[in-house]
Amino acid sequence: MKNHSSTGQDQLEHRLIVEGASCASCVSKIEKALSNIQGVQSAQMNFAQRTVTVVCNVADASLISSIEIAGYNAKIDTSESEEAIDEKDKVDAQYYKELMRDMSLALLLGVPLMIYGFTIGEMTVNTNTERLAWFVVGLLTLAVMVFPGRHFYVGAYHSFKNHSANMDTLIALGTGIAWLYSMMVVALPDLLPLMARHVYFEVSAMIIGLINLGLAVEVKVRGKTSPKF
Fold it and tell me: Could you give the domains of the chain?
């Protein structure tokens, strides 16, 4: 920690690692949450490194608690030690593997559905056989949303609790609405005109798969100098 002069108590520079931040809105929310703490002089987040530097006379526990209330996880950055650097590399490598797994599971469903829609047939519900088939696809898509896409919905929930919106909110709304509308088409096709009986399960699966891929690439770039990858 570095000392900073102050008219009151000495201000110390605290450095924290933040997990779960996915966009500029997250950065703004984290900095605002920290700045609102009495005794905090400044709070600045490095989005690329997922770290936030806080100049204050506040205990680390209070800073971490404020970030967690905002919907994110945080811990003290001890990256000056070789052991901490090695541990961070291991965490990033594990996170990368999880994102690649989630991406693979989502695209395993999304890509065939998209190919089917473009080449073989229309993704519509007109017969009972089609209803049954798309119902099964709907359940598979729900599984993709619950498992590979879970972190998006958790992030959106935390943002909702804090009366804000971020990238997770957009993903949750987009995939959720596409899935709900498609299930309505499957369950109650007679209530809709023929031209509106189109399902969009591939949209939910592809969005989750591609964004997980993007996050994995981001982690890979951050840790490209690490042998753990």
Answer: 3-77 (3.30.70.100), 83-222 (no CATH)
